[in-house]
Amino acid sequence: MLNLPVALAIAGSDSGGGSGIQADLKTFSSLDVFGTTAITCVTAQNPDELLGISPVDPAMVAQQIKAVCDSYSVRVAKTGMLYSADIIRAVADEDIREGIAVLVVDPVMVAASGARLLQADAIEALKNELLPKARVVTPNLHEAEILCGRSISSVEDLRAAAKEISETFDLACVAKGGDLSGNEVVDILVDGVEEHVFTSDRVPAKETHGAGCAFSAALTAFLARGELLSDAVAASQRYVVHALKSAPDVGRHRPLRFFWENEAFE
After folding, report:
1. What local confidence, expressed as pLDDT, does residue 113 receive?
2. Could you tell me the residue range of the domain that residue 236 belongs to?
3. Residues 203, 207, 208, 213: is their CA dihedral positive or negative?
4. In this model, does residue 99 exceed pLDDT 90?
């Protein structure tokens, strides 16, 4: 009998199905990891726009985490959209109580449509209460700018930001360079004194909605499967590249194809 590793996604629900909890569960399942969830917000959104956000009571978020951890041995947890300082504190406190060994933080702040997904006063709670308890943080370019407090316009800037974030919060930082210009995408992992650079050809995708969620969820899945961090980052980059390359037409949208065939992930 196959004994699947268990991962927990703590994030918001995307009614459009392309990001958030929905993307996390699809990614986990595609990589043979059993996905569990703690929903932080319900959103009304699609790839074009976010119409509304209804946050879940922080006590209920904590209760979801407890319920999952009482029944499953969670190897790795990841956070996505947390929205408020109170939810962040509830997650940080419950993570300690439940003894989750590895926490991956995707510091979701702004949607691709431009809508704010993290309240302004929650940024300090993220920095001061959640990141110090995490093993890995996976900011995109704009999130890295907020975390390090300066603009990023080059690969060298991205490298410096990853190093600063890693040192400041005492964790591994995967700074994602997809928003930099050029035909090549560069992601940089800094883990203490170690640095790894991962490159891929830029995919001319019609839509990238959910790509950040898919990356952090894939990283969580590979870590839950026992992969080394640098190998997990490389595999996660490849996973997102193929999900973008094989994106299907769904109505007038072209969302990521989470379930694509590749022997490397079997």
Report:
1. 62
2. 6-249
3. negative
4. no
